[in-house]
Amino acid sequence: MKKISFLCLVLGSLAFGQTIIFNGCHNIFDDQNFVFTKTGVDAYNKGIYITTPLDGQPCGGLGSCEFKIQWNNTLSRWEFLADEGYGTFTNPNLIYYNSTGNNNFAQNPPAITFGTWVENTLFTSQSGGCGGNLTPSNATMTGDLHSTSLATSDVNADISKIQIFPNPVADVIRISGINNGQSIQIYNMTGQLVKSEVFDSKINVSELSSGVYLLKINTKNFQSHEFKFVKK
């Protein structure tokens, strides 16, 4: 039978090992977890996530499955793609796309609970179908995802306990209420990454120009929290 590979693209930082774990579409993919690792960012600073191992894992009668999630700037949406071939992703198939949870400022894809991940039946109906749009009842997707219009990813965490101060800030911004931080990124309001480093409760932002920024805090259990702050 023809080998089908699937590729999912997601936002994150390769340096800090950001990942997404997906389980769904059991008719085609089987009841198993697929781990997507961030391999870099595209021209719009959106994360690109590809399943590991790169050469795929056993996947029902389809042979080897490889997945990728990536941003489609032309259509302004995140897409879940399937590479039909040997991992080149030259002519991938569209499996899902998010129709309502997209955010141009978000650097990572939306969670299942945010917006609507629509099944592309033009492809999946030929292979047994995936059972419709992704929902918490038929699939799970965790990791480096955003779940609000502010692109804040928060997987079962109490974000109210996390604080950043002072705000506005002149030199050093402090973080409290988090004990499992792994990395931080700071983006300007055009979505450009301006600072990235290992997590610390004190971050020197004195070199930044005056303006509004977004601070993204990544944790060791693949959660992320985002806060806007003003640099004096």
UniProtKB/TrEMBL annotation:
Signal peptide: 1-17
UniProt name for this protein: Por secretion system C-terminal sorting domain-containing protein
UniProt xrefs under NCBIfam families: Por_Secre_tail (TIGR04183)
UniProt KW Amino-acid biosynthesis keyword: no
Secretion system C-terminal sorting domain ranges (all copies): 164-224
Keywords: Signal
Pfam families named among the record's database cross-references: Por_Secre_tail
Protein source organism: Chryseobacterium arachidis
Residue ranges crossing the lipid bilayer per the database entry: none
